[in-house]
Structures are given as C-alpha cells and as structure tokens.
Amino acid sequence: MLVRVEAAGVGFWDAMSREGRFGEMDFPYVPGFETAGVVESTGAKVTGLAVGDEVYAFDFPGGGYAEYRAISAATAVRKPASLSFAEAAAIPVAGITAHQGILDVLGLREDETVLVTAAAGGVGTFAVQIASAVAGARVVGTATPANHDYLAELGAAAAVDYRDDAWPRAVREAAGGAVDAVLDCAGGEVNPQILSRAFETVRDGGRVAYLPSLADEPLPENEPAPPRGISARFFGAEPDAERLARLAELFDAGTLTVHLEEVIALEEAARAQERVEAGHTRGKLVLGVGPRA
C-alpha cells in the first residue's frame, strides 16, 4: 500500500544501514525503517486497512525519509489513537526491539530484577517501561546522572552512572545482589567491553540479551564468553505487525509513554543521524514530514 508519511522515526539502525552494515544496498537508497502516516491507496489483496486509515509500521530495508512510502500491508497496523504521528513514528523499531527483548528473549518474569544499559535511549526508554509496567520486574538502568530522574519517571527502581569504572558493583548494590537478566542496549557485539562488564552484574545461570551497536571498536575474533552458566543471546528486531498492535494497546491504555527528544524537519535528516551517532539522546528523534506530525 502507499502511505502518505507524516513522521519518520530515526534510530541508530538508520545510520548502520547507511554505512552498509546490513549488507549491500540498491541505489538510490532512501533511509528510514519507521513510518507513521495515512493510507493513500491499497493493493487489491490488502485487507483490514483502507484508504484514510492512520497507520504506523516498521518495514525493511528503508523508505521512511520521504513524503510517500510504498509499504507492505503485512508490516503496518493502525497507530495508537492517543498518540500524534510524531509520537507513533518513534515506536516501531525501538518498541518492537524492547518488547521482544524483555518479554520473549529474556522472558523476564514478575519480581525478577533486570539491568538495562543505555536506559535513557530510544530502545532503553521503552525497555524500562515494559520491564516494570508489563513484566512486573525491578529495573536498574545505566545512564548519566542527568537522566537518573528520567529513568525513575519511566519506572526504574535505581539508576547507575556508567562512566564510573565500578558501575557493575554499583548495579549489584542498587539491586541488592546480582540481577537476573540484562538487556544490553549499549555495547553488544561491536563494543564487547560493556557486554563483558555487564556479565559481572548477573547471577549464576542468569540471562543476557544484546543488540547491534554503533560503536567503532572492532569486533574481536571471539565475542565475550558468558561465565558462570549465564546465557547470552544476540538479537535484532524484525517487522512484526502483531507486536505493533499489542504495543498500540499498551500506549492507548496509558501503560507506556513516548518521549520525543526533538522533532526535526525532513530536510535536516543528516543532522538527525549525526545526533543519533553522537549518542546520549533521551528517548527518540523523529523527522516531521507532513503537516500533521
């Protein structure tokens, strides 16, 4: 179907795609996995969505940084009715990643404790909320001190400054012992030092999930091996309309909220990606494309 784009989400995955980290690209290439807009037209076999519907979607390999986007109807659902287009565009990749990582990959359970690294970022903002409000877990997040109150507002029980070399010990102290699980949104396979330090926070037999990273540190010949029976799993989110629909319900119910650091004009997309690559954004950056963003 064809979607008239009102807003497009911006994430580190857009910069990674631009750099060719997801494989060779066909040119011309338009970035942007996350879209929120209005259905302009549909193919003959499209069901469940019609012209005029307000939708949001995560579709690959790009196309969101544009006024119109041809998109697979299988990747789109009606956007949360309570959110603006800009807020909805902030959700698809980051929300799916956090939801999948916390509930499926880690299988976080009520009364467990989880560490979320880069907790104030795009994925981390949703992960903290999903872990606390949906899974019923206790959350410790890493962030700069300027974001500690922000994490508390999201539902984190404690926050730790990752710039302190002793942060793994601080995490264990804040958690009252070793954590049950870690969602590493900061280091992953490209910056394994953070992942290695995260293992220090986890109980014997605990679980770790980690994401792709924009860090420039080269991938070692062997990724850090988890000690003490800890399981570690790398994962990346994929388009999932069913999960987007479940997220829409959570946002409309007020269980989850969106934080926009800035809505940037489409013409300044390069600046938006520079901001993402520099790190330290709070929540998400979004491109305002249409007049209703």
Automatic annotation (TrEMBL):
Q: Mind telling me which Pfam families this protein's record contains?
A: ADH_N, ADH_zinc_N_2
The protein's matches in Gene3D superfamilies, at most eight in alphabetical order, are given as: Medium-chain alcohol dehydrogenases, catalytic domain (3.90.180.10), NAD(P)-binding Rossmann-like Domain (3.40.50.720)
Lineage top rank: taxon: Bacteria
> Which InterPro entries does this chain map to?
ADH-like_N, ER, GroES-like_sf, NAD(P)-bd_dom_sf, Quin_OxRdtase/zeta-crystal_CS, Zinc-ADH_QOR/CCCR
CDD domains associated with the record:
MDR_like_2
List, alphabetically, the PROSITE patterns matched. Answer: QOR_ZETA_CRYSTAL
Compartmental location:
Cytoplasm
NAD as UniProt keyword: no
The record places domain Enoyl reductase (ER) at 1-287
List the keywords (alphabetical): Cytoplasm, NADP, RNA-binding
Quick one: where is this thing mainly located? cytoplasm
User: Subunit info?
Assistant: Homotetramer.
Kindly provide the name given to this protein in its UniProt entry: NADP-dependent oxidoreductase
Q: Which organism is it from?
A: Salinactinospora qingdaonensis
